[in-house]
Amino acid sequence: MLTKLYPAKLENDALQPAQTSMSDADSFLDKTAHINEQQSGRLILALDATLQSECIWDLVRQNQTTLFMSGGQKTGLLVQLAYFRGASECRFSKWISNPQAMHHALGQIECEGNTTQLSRLLGHAATEHGKKRVSAFVYIGDRIEEDADTLIGQSMELGKQGFRAIMLQDGIDTEAQKIFKAIADATNGAYFQFDKRFPKTLEEVLPAAAIFATGGLRGLSVKTDETAKRLLSILKTRSTN
Length: 241
Fold this sequence. Notes:
This protein is of the alpha/beta class and about 240 residues long. It has a single domain (about 35-240), classed as 3-Layer(aba) Sandwich (Rossmann fold). It has 9 helices and 7 strands, in the order E-H-E-H-H-E-E-H-H-E-H-E-H-E-H-H. The chain has a 7-stranded mixed sheet, sandwiched between helices. The chain is globular. About 45% of the residues are buried.
């Protein structure tokens, strides 16, 4: 039986329901996240927050600083945290430009078991991309329990708009792998697999994605680690197709 875990109640919740306008409520991030509209990259960091993915959260918390260190050094980076958990909860943060605010947002959340809601995250991403270009969408999860055709259809529509999804799968669920790869293909994005016991791929993809979000393929070309080179190769190939 899955145990439900809830975040500590805060006076100002930094994470808003996906169906709620971000301007509807004051939040912690209004006071802590310096948002500069001139910054060149916007990246959505989307996470499965069900209990099965609890270890993923620990890894993301440990490595989220590398997003801003890599993507924000010269041109700046805005990151939006999005997640689902429980029976119907799907939330997203303000656009964040510093690791301290992201660390606080991540710290408010505990995992709660139920089925996946990737379709809702893709729908939210489409809304954000329609307002202003989202440079990259990074999804981290381990399984998918939704209709594959629906997810792939959503991804194809996003791909037509120049939207790129970088799909990171924890583990070896073969059915989920097919859908992760199909979403990456539909958006001319990329698929990576990692294991929480050996998180090197995750540790390297996050900063590489941040650099791509702010500097595009040219910015990514200066990275020397193997994961970044692989991401560059995949995205460059798909850009020319």
